[in-house]
Design goal:
By secondary structure, the chain is an alpha+beta fold. 38% of the residues lie in helices and 22% in strands. A hairpin with a 7-residue loop joins strand 3 and strand 4. Helix 3 packs antiparallel against helix 4. The longest helix is centred in the first third of the chain and has 40 residues. The termini are far apart. The N terminus is likely disordered.
Length: 329
């Protein structure tokens, strides 16, 4: 009699436990499904989707949690749901964009460094890296007045050519070059995005620093418009070799960034098999983070190597790319 009563009580508790397990599985799977659905639909949607898309690979964690809870709750519908979401995540984690090497002969090799120095705080670390790595072109985001002056003082002799948008805080940016530069209008934005045409040993190369607004709540429209401005710049001239580098505040999982790549640009990190190496936030990278700093190239270039440099006092890792310009026409 007592055993029967205990069995009845356990049977009454079991449905409640299953309901709890179903909720524990359904909530993370529903959240991840919204983000993955936006990725599949090719839209960045609204906050918080753009922010979560930056960390798409890490959505494997709540997906795995949902699968485990569905399994423990014996919720077979949830288990199938979780497997489908897991499969889509695995598909989208694959590299996006074209790869390959130009078929023409090599013309000139050069080294490019792109760094965000976080309101100028990382300037001294950048100077050390520039002196050690000796890049030919340096794209510096968030280089406010003191940063610009410090770079002129310390490495100005080695980089006699520059294009800058002066500004305080995050709005200042500068391109440093060993090659002669002809100024261009750049791309309009909330933060400075200077541009130039470099004479790289007799070969014109378009240069454009990228630093669109981050997709902050309430500013996603500005972020999307400024990335579209960079896309328009890339699409405006597909014949001249182009380097577009900086802090894009976007990863390959953002539709606005993929539209930029669809103009024919190639990510140097993608070309060297490092398209998922995080650059931000530097405090947790490389184990955890998103790759939002890029060196993008037209198909005239190949990439031999890409390294990610840890700079003290900034929240971004710098991207150092060794590239080669080829004759393709």
């Amino acid at each position: 009699m007592g055993g029967a009563a205990e069995g009845t009580a356990a049977g009454e508790r079991r449905p409640g436990g299953r309901r709890f397990g179903t909720w524990c599985a359904g909530l993370p799977l529903a959240g991840v499904s919204v983000v993955v659905g936006c990725r599949a639909a090719g839209t960045d949607a609204l906050t918080p989707v753009p922010q979560l898309l930056a960390f798409l690979p890490w959505l494997l964690v709540p997906t795995a949690l949902g699968l485990l809870c569905a399994l423990l709750a014996r919720w077979w519908t949830g288990l199938v749901w979780g497997v489908l979401v897991l499969g889509l995540l695995a598909w989208f984690i694959e590299p996006y964009g074209r790869a390959g090497t130009p078929g023409g002969p090599a013309l000139v090799s050069l080294r490019v460094l792109a760094a965000n120095v976080e309101f100028g705080h990382g300037t001294d670390a950048l100077v050390t890296a520039v002196r050690r790595e000796r890049p030919d072109l340096v794209f510096v985001s968030e280089c406010e007045y003191t940063c610009a002056a410090r770079l002129e003082e310390t490495v100005g002799a080695a980089y006699p050519h520059r294009r800058a948008v002066p500004g305080g805080g995050s709005t200042g940016s500068v391109i440093l070059s060993r090659f002669p530069l002809r100024g261009t209008a750049g791309v309009p934005g909330t933060m400075g995005m200077p541009g130039a045409v470099a004479d790289v040993r007799g070969h014109p190369v378009r240069l454009q620093l990228a630093h669109p607004m981050p997709p902050l709540p309430g500013r996603v429209g500005d972020w999307r418009r400024e990335l579209d401005g960079l896309r328009d710049f890339a699409a405006a001239d597909r014949r001249t070799p182009t380097i577009l580098a900086g802090d894009f505040n976007a990863s390959q999982d953002h539709a606005a960034f993929r539209r930029l790549l669809d103009t024919g640009l190639r990510d140097a990190a993608r070309l060297t098999g490092q398209d998922r190496t995080p650059t931000w936030p530097a405090r947790t990278a490389p184990p955890l983070g998103a790759q939002i700093d890029h060196v993008l190239l037209t198909p005239d270039f190949s990439a031999r190597a890409v390294r990610f440099l840890d700079l003290r006092a900034t929240d971004h890792r710098a991207v150092l790319a060794d590239i080669t310009l080829h004759r393709t026409r």
